[in-house]
Amino acid sequence: MKRFHGHETYVQSAGVKADMEIDGFSIAVCAEMGIELSRHRSRSFDEMQEWGDDLSSFELIVALSPAAQRKALEFTRYHHIDVVYWPILDPTGLGETREAKLASYRQARDQIIERMINAWGPPKDPLPET
């Protein structure tokens, strides 16, 4: 989202679990588009609050897994935040070879991109061909 729309919108990424490094295949398929993820790590809603984010100020949570959707709906019982669920392919565990795994991750990445474009329009700056 940040790569597509810059700083027009405040965006944070959070997961159900925290203290996890970003998956290497995710790093690889995002690097193909000029998106740097290697220094990122996942964080939870609780960590976001600990780090100073006022979660009640967010307008929307986009959940990419059923577990994330459940967590977001649990959280929004106390805050008025819209929750949408995008059923995106979970590429973890798919594919026998490195190239097959990368293909699954690219498919998931491209599903997310398609959803973002449908929701908020094309990126301000053209993306590199993947």
Can you describe what's shown?
By secondary structure, this protein is mainly alpha-helical. It contains five helices and two strands; from the N terminus they run αααβαβα. The chain has helices spanning 2-5, 24-31, 45-50, 66-75, 98-120, and strands spanning 60-63, 82-85. Strands 1-2 form a two-stranded parallel ribbon. The relative contact order is 0.18. The mean pLDDT is 84.
String of helices and strands: HHHEHEH
Net shape: globular
Q: Major sheet, described briefly?
A: 2 strands, parallel
> Spans with pLDDT under 50 lasting ≥5 residues?
none
Contiguous helical run count: 5
Overall strand count: 2
Q: What's the arrangement of strands in the largest beta sheet?
A: 1-2
**How many whole angstroms does the radius of gyration measure?**
15 Å
Mean pLDDT: 84
Strand content: 5-15%
Kindly, what is the distance between the CA atoms of the first and last residues, rounded to a whole number of angstroms?
17 Å
Secondary structure topology:
Elements: H1 2-5, H2 24-31, H3 45-50, E1 60-63, H4 66-75, E2 82-85, H5 98-120
Parallel strand pairs: 1-2
Helix pairs in contact: 2-5
